[in-house]
Amino acid sequence: MVLRDPPAQHLLAAAAVGRLHRCVDERSLPRADLALALTLQLLQLGADARRQLRDRRYALPAAPARQLAALWPQVVDVLAEAALDPAPGDEERERRHCSEEGWQELLAGYKADEVVRKVLQMLVLDRLSSHDLVTARLLLTLMRDSSHWAFRSALPEYAPFAYSLAGELQDLVRCGALHPGGSFWALAFEGVLLQLLDAHSQVHSECLRLLLLVAKDLPGEALGAHLEHMLAATRESRATARHRKHKYHEREARARREAEEFEQLAGDYLFSAGGGGLQSEWSDGFRAVRSLKYGTDENFSDLYKKVMFVGGLQEAALPEAVRAFLRESRDERGGQQRRGRASGGGGGRGGMDGLGGHGGGSDEDGAPGGVRDGGDDDDA
Predict the structure, then answer these.
(1) Residue spans with biased composition (Gly residues) (predicted)?
(2) Residue 167 CB burial class (10 angstroms; 0-12, 13-18, ≥19)
(3) Number of domains in the chain
(4) How far is CA 94 from the centre of its chain?
(5) Sign of the C-alpha dihedral, residues 17, 19, 25, 28?
């Protein structure tokens, strides 16, 4: 399962991209690169980890001979054309693949194979970091045309890529290499990133921060439409996160009351040498992790307000869905403040020891789309 972790997958995909670049530099074929074959095998092993653990059949997958002979040479062709491009940073120019047959090979491979998706996603990030928008456009078009993310169950797979894509677009905007309203912006942000918005709550946050950078350059109608779309796309996951957070704070409030009652009954024994084990029950690492997971605040409503302020949008002119979201946010925060005053100020945000009150964190943050939290949501 180590190879299944996102950092390991990221490292292996980056290594595969490096080997593909080397094939271009050395004018060699992917099937002759043993390091590339081994890297793809390790990526496939990570992709198969859960199935192998479930079936209790462990084996290193064979090298993808057909892909090395047919699919990856098409990617090398894409990189070779990029190396010869005199203006790779032109955000309005489109370059098509050299052959329709090769394009169909790439489409079929992207739809069918997780390893191919991981490597091509890494290649998109690699091209964006090099300001090669022409090649990045071709690969993003491939992803969009595949429609692989049309099924909600496929969205969580894209969370690391979508988060990184939003970050790369932010860097391009800051350095002036990308301008909102252009054709590349329409493809990367509207055609890809907004479709992956519900992959994870952090993707939602990064998209809002990207909009914050370009809000003053977008027409008010377009900016309002983006905000409305983002709220609609994340409605279900935000409701799930709100439910989980409420249950978490209820459990923590109950645990706090029980701890206070126990402390009154046990007296000094709780803090004596013999009571160390009992005290540790209320300060273990598991409770701290749960506090970080459910007690933090994504501040989505604050980000929405900042985007509207920078974009010069008045609340009265916003779509009804956005206005309703802002009203709910104000009502929820008012309710939290009233509950905090009613409980004598003990309703602050949950602390690292997990004993914080039930008022911490706003309820606007999202949750990973399609991800279930196992038994964490069941009361003990």
Answers:
(1) 342-360
(2) middle
(3) 1
(4) 27
(5) negative
